Amino acid sequence: MAALSVGLAYAPAFAQAAGQAATSQTAAPQEGEERAAAPDIIVTGSRIKASGYTAPTPTTVVDETAIQANAQPNIFTTIAQLPSLQGSSGTQTNTFSTSSGQQGLSSFSLRGLGAIRTLTLLDGQRVVGANVTGTPDISLFPQLLVQRVDVVNGGASSSYGSDAVGGVVNFITDTRFKGLKGNIQGSITDYGDDETVLVQLAGGKSFADDTVHLIVSGEYSDEAGVGPGPFGIGLAGGRDWFIQRTLVNRNITNDGNPQLVLRDYAQSIGFTKYGLITAGPLQGIAFDQSGRPFQFQYGSNGVPARNAAGTVIGCDFGFCQGGDVSGNVDSGRSIKSAIERFNIYSRLGYDFAPNNEVYVTVNVGQVKTNNQPINGQNRPNLTIQCENPFVPQIVRDQCAASGITSFRFGTSNAALGNTRVYTDRRQYRFVAGAKGEFPVLGTDWNYDAYYEHGINYTDIDVKNILLSRRFDRAIDAISLNGVIVCRDPVARANGCQPLNIIGGTPSEAALRYVQPENGPYQRTKQTQDVVSLNFSGQPFDSWAGPVSVAFGGEYRREFYRVNADPYGAGGTNTPFNADYPADPVLLADGVNWYAGNYRNGRGAYNVKEGYVEVDVPVINSDAAGRANINAAARVTNYSTSGTVWTWKVGGTWELPIDGFRLRGVTSRDIRAPNLSELFAAPVTTTLPNFFDPFNNRNVLALQYTVGNPELTPEIARNTTAGISLSNPSWLPGFSASFDWYKIKIDDVIGSLGAGDIVNYCFTGILPQTCNSFNLNNPNGPNFINVQSFNFASIKTEGFDIEASYQWRNPLGLPGTLTLRGLATHVAKYISDTGLPGTIPNDQAGQNLGATPDWKWMAQQTYSNDQFSFFLQERWFSDGVISNNYVECEPGSCPLSTGNNQTISPQDNQIPGAFYMDVGGTYNLTPQITAYFKVDNLFNRDPAIVHIFSNPALYDALGRTYRAGVRFKM
To answer: Taking the C-alpha atoms of 147, 152, 155 and 157 in order, what is their torsion angle to the nearest 10 degrees?
Structure first.
């Protein structure tokens, strides 16, 4: 109990909670604000509810003060800064994607294991997913009412069920808030973008002699985001850190030099902004926006070889360095998605008896985001006929002189404009429950029962994107009776309009033909129904104290349905209509768009489970201290995969040494396959010459990318052990902890290619793939179902360090100085498919990912009755591109192989980053507080890497100014 009491009493920011429960979990009421005593103690990571209970799983608590000090428009950003949260997704991630459906999705990832292996709860209850992977969107939570956030750094499947492999993030709301409070905030970056407005208001009141409690909150936020830059290397707002760094594969493995080399201001030799002839005798002729030809300026003093391969002498494989980079497309990526959200939340509770309540909650939220994945719609390998009337006469003359009738052509398609993805998520969540206590045989028992029904609608619309097969026919133009038309008569009869891509002046009719106004779309509905019943009590005493028991059961049903446009989805499920008329040029099976080919699908599963947890005190004396053993077991039945057991065994020992406590736990946890993995909407691809090893022949085959309802849960073994020091008499106000962790996940769900599926069956390496194909008809149709299987593994190990100290009246000054630091070291993070031809990959310290070797955060806060001042430092260590690369100096490199490619040490390095934030508050009146915050005070640019940027680690926005006013009454 002591550690949490200290954590919350002495640290108004991040508190190291060690999994304890204490009455100080509820923050003291502010002036003009009342809170009734809550009847239950909630311990995230455990179902035991008892005064003084200490759970063995380390837990970090982010309280309301810390949330306010960080002054973010989305509480997600505050929590995601914790060092143990690695790889979380937010508005700065997934901005390069067209088809993922995760743009703007704010979801947590603990230990770098991904959002699908982190369980996020609201008041200990599940939340309907905002994506078919099952992950919720934190942006849809009632953020102003959040009283604290518990982050459990360890497996909790035996307590809460599936997905709690990396841990649990539990948002605890203030269910007894009384009064009125609000927050108004605005922010802008140093570059004049990402203008943000946030308005929040919440009120609570009791009626009928304090037996009826009503809480209502509403909030609106609009973050403009940071948009794309122009073609070339410019970025939005004049940011200058992007230099088109590219990792070039020389494809030379045995000359003593590194196979992989980094090049800045890299220039592709395959396209330009308005078109480039890329091979043959006319190689190097480019075109400006008006279609006039000119000689392209290659970097690296490159000279076109004018051969069929399109070689440029003096340039690395596919790239030159410098020269004319005006056609480069990567600068067109959104740095941060724009996001607009609103949320309305209400809770009505009735105390029908002392410490017993029935309640209902209603949460309605909407989040709209949009982003631009990249500039243009790059097509590097086109064939243009010399007779095409859009080809300038001077170039046609050169075709004739060179004896060619066509040439290879590449373009960024800048004239077609840029694609944009719009996502609209709407969530409706209803909960009815009862909780309280009742006597049984002279002891008090707690109960907690609820029913939740959640609905999430996700609409994705892609604008300004081409239909690839229409594009191919539209650019193949001829002159017929003096009129420029499409060559293909079938396409011509179905509305084909000739498209001029020699330059940047296509006709409006041609643009509408290749890019119809009705673009790709996806309409998804997800529902979640949960019935949960839990009991907790202390039925008897042991020699060392009362034995605590918790038990209960849960039923859950998950469902999704997705419909897509017929040009992307194809098939007969969605007939062609006026907006998407039938067109014989297009593939009837769909997959016609340049990107954003969504599919139709549906699926459902249900879960039935029961659990029991016990906590037994085993030592209670002044000489030996106090110790307890905690154990739990859960049996879960999935309608898709059957029954699985999870369990945990652990304990704590409060040593007789002042302030010290030992803790440890080992558990078996699970991550069940999600709706997408089980029932993914099918995608069809034709494989015209697929090799059949069983009959030693090539066959026509159809590749179906589908879900796999035979998937079983991933099985994890999670072990943590640590020591904590809390508020010792020799240093009051100080607390610290060290926790080591080790996680191993088997049967990790992954996918294989069509060839691997057949070959692994043929060789007997992976027999479960044998039911995924049929190649017995040499004339077709044969098929291979490309789907996910349980075959990979993940191993990660490291430790967490936390410390805090509070100094009251420092140096005689009135007020409090609080110091706090949190750090995570990832010693290893090894993913292994276990398949022939592959090797394990240790991702720890690979700064292209989300798991740097070290990550820490420190805070210093001084506060008194009138004002506060806040400093925060965030840092992570230097890293590499890949631990599997072989580092060597030029001239001394060994043979480079597919699994261990060679690279120079300096090219393999990626620097870490240090960020400082500063903020403060001033009480204008006892009820009104003004505040400010500056994020990334020194305007630190992200590391320059060859994937544009890595927003999972680096801040790409730059310095951001925030200011606002909070009030309470």
So the answer is: -10
CA–CA dist 276, 273 (Å, integer): 8
Alpha-helical regions (H) of 520-577: 566-569
Bridge-partner residues for 930, per DSSP? 922, 965
Contact, 88 vs 115, CB < 8 A?
yes
Whether omega before 293 lies within 30 degrees of 0, making that bond cis, reads no
3-state SS of 112-176 is: CCCHHHEEEEECCECCCCCCCCCCCCHHHCCHHHEEEEEEECCCCHHHHCCCCCCEEEEEEECCC
Q: Closest Cα partner for 359 from 369, 368, 349, 351?
A: 349
DSSP per-residue string spanning 481-524? TTEEEES-HHHHHTT------SSS---HHHHHHHS-SS--EEEE
DSSP state of 676: H
**For the chain, first and last CA: distance in Å?**
32
Strand (E) positions, 21-82? 34-35, 59-63
CA 839 to chain centre: 26
| Two structure tokens written together for 674 | 């999600």
Rounded Cα distance between 661 and 626, Å, is 9
Structure confidence at residue 162 (pLDDT) = 87
Quick one: CA dihedral 303, 304, 305, 310, positive or negative?
Answer: positive
Question: What is the pLDDT at residue 47?
Answer: 82
Q: How far is CA 789 from CA 298, 716, 749, 967, in A?
A: 46, 16, 5, 53
Q: How confident is the model at residue 11, as a pLDDT?
A: 36
Closest CA to 375 of 420, 409, 342: 420
Q: What b-and-e string marks burial along 900-933, b requiring 16 or more CB atoms within 10 Å of the CB?
A: ebbbbeebbbbebbebbbebbbebeeebebebbb
Name which of 526, 515, 527 is nearest 596 in CA terms.
515
Amino acid at 455: I
Token match 């509480």: residue? 75
Name the residue among 398, 421, 417 with its Cα closest to residue 466: 417
Phi, then psi, of 453 in degrees rounded to 5: -125, 120
Answer whether 916's CB lies under 8 Å from 937's CB. yes
DSSP state of 770: G
| Distance (Å, whole) CA 809 – CA 813 | 5
Both tokens assigned to 656: 């007789």
d(CA 879, CA 841): 15
Pairing mode, strands 788-808 and 816-832: antiparallel
Task: Write the CA distances from 340 to 74, 143, 206, 337, 555, integer angstroms.
Answer: 11, 15, 32, 10, 34
Q: pTM for this one? A: 0.91
Distance CA 844, CA 840 (A): 12
pLDDT bucket at 782, cuts 50 / 70 / 90: confident
Report whether 201 contacts 233 (CB < 8 A): no
pLDDT by residue (tens digit) across 168-220?
A: 999 999 999 999 999 999 999 999 999 999 999 999 999 999 999 999 999 99
Nearest to 55 by CA among 664, 734, 669: 664
User: Can you say how many angstroms the Cα of residue 915 is from the centroid of all Cα atoms in its chain?
Assistant: 22
Q: Which two tokens stand for residue 830?
A: 């090894």
- For residue 393, the tally of other CB atoms under 10 A from its CB is 8
Dihedral angle over CA of 698, 699, 702, 707, nearest 10:
-70
> Would you state the structure tokens that stand for residue 702, as one six-digit string?
């159809």
**Among all chains, which residue has been given the structure tokens 């999972």?**
952
- Helix residue spans in 261-371 (DSSP H): none
Structure-token match 């078996």, residue found: 668
Residue 591 gets the label, from left (phi > 0), alpha (psi -120 to 50) or beta, of: left
- Of 49-63, 508-522, 710-724, 926-940, the one with minimum mean pLDDT is 49-63
Residue 494 amino acid letter: N
What are the pLDDT digits (tens) for 710-762? 999 999 999 999 999 999 999 999 999 999 999 999 999 988 888 889 988 99
